[in-house]
Design goal:
- With 239 residues, the protein is mainly β.
- The protein is 3% helix and 40% strand.
- The chain folds into two domains: 92 residues; 100 residues, no CATH class.
- The protein is built from one helix and 29 strands.
Length: 239
C-alpha cells in the first residue's frame, strides 16, 4: 500500500525541538523496538518484531512488516504502518496516518490522528473523542466509532459499519461492489448503522446490497443503492 500522507509532527513538538537537536533513529531486521517513556526518537523501523511507544514518548514514523505496534497514553508519533500485525493507540495520544494490511486497528479515547486510517483485512474501531484528519478505509473488516469526528469519508467493501452516537463523518460513506462473487459463508449482508445524533454530511452510496439502519435523530446526505430503516431506540433492531 502506498504512503499517501506525509510525516505528521504536532506543532507543539516541532517548536519544542531546538534547531541543533539530534534524535535517534532505530532500524532493525529482527527484534522488537521500544521507545522509552518520555524520550524523543526519529524513525522506528523493523522487519520482524513489534514496536512499543511508551507513555509520553515522541517519535517519527513507526513501521514494521511482521509485528504489532502499540502507542501508549499521551505519546506522540508520526505515521504508523504494519503489514502483518495490529495497531493499538492508547488514550490522548497523537499520531500521523495509521495503516495496516493484515491486522486490526483500535484507537482509544481522545486520540488525534493526523491522516487517514486504513486496513485491508482487519477491523477499525475509534473510541470517544477521536479525531481523524483523513478518511477511514477497509476492504474486509468492520468499522466502528463512538463520538468521533472524521474529516474525510468512509469506504469499504465487506464488513459492518457503525457511525455511533454523536459521531460526525464529513465526507460521506461508500460501499464498493466486490470484485468477485462472495462464497456461501460470506452471503450475510453487511449491517450499516447511523446511530443517535450521528451525522454523515456527504452522500451514502451502496454499490452492493446492505442492511441500513438510520436513527431518527441522525442526519445524512442523499442515499443511493439502499433503503434506510428508521429506528428510535438506542440500538437498531436485532436481525
Amino acid at each position: 500500500m502506498t504512503k499517501r500522507y506525509a510525516f505528521f509532527l504536532p506543532l507543539s513538538l516541532a517548536l519544542a525541538l531546538p534547531a541543533h537537536a539530534q534524535v535517534q533513529n532505530i532500524d532493525k531486521v529482527n527484534g522488537a523496538i521500544t521507545a522509552v517513556a518520555g524520550q524523543r526518537y526519529g524513525t522506528l523501523e523493523t522487519v520482524n518484531g513489534s514496536i512499543r511507544i511508551e507513555a509520553g514518548a515522541q517519535t517519527g514514523t513507526a513501521e514494521t512488516v511482521n509485528g504489532s505496534i502499540r502507542v501508549d497514553a499521551n505519546a506522540q508519533s508520526g505515521s504508523l504502518e504494519a503489514v502483518n500485525g495490529g495497531i493499538t493507540v492508547a488514550q490522548n495520544a497523537r499520531t500521523g496516518a495509521i495503516e495496516t494490511v493484515n491486522g486490526a486497528i483500535r484507537v482509544e479515547t481522545g486520540v488525534a490522528i493526523g491522516g487517514s486510517v486504513s486496513t485491508v483485512n482487519g477491523s477499525v474501531f475509534i473510541d470517544r473523542g477521536g479525531r481523524v484528519a483523513g478518511a477511514i478505509e477497509t476492504v474486509n473488516g468492520s468499522i466502528g466509532m463512538v463520538d468521533t469526528d472524521v474529516t474525510g469519508g468512509i469506504e469499504t467493501v465487506n464488513g459492518d459499519v457503525t457511525v455511533g452516537i454523536d459521531s460526525h463523518v464529513r465526507g460521506g460513506l461508500v460501499y464498493r461492489k466486490p470484485r468477485q462473487w462472495l462464497s456461501i459463508s460470506q452471503r450475510r449482508l453487511p449491517r450499516v448503522v447511523i446511530g443517535p445524533n450521528a451525522r454523515v454530511d456527504g452522500p451514502l452510496v451502496f454499490e452492493r446490497e446492505v442492511t441500513l439502519y438510520v436513527h431518527q435523530s441522525a442526519t445524512t446526505g442523499a442515499i443511493t443503492g439502499a433503503r434506510a430503516v428508521r429506528f428510535s431506540t438506542l440500538t437498531p433492531p436485532a436481525e
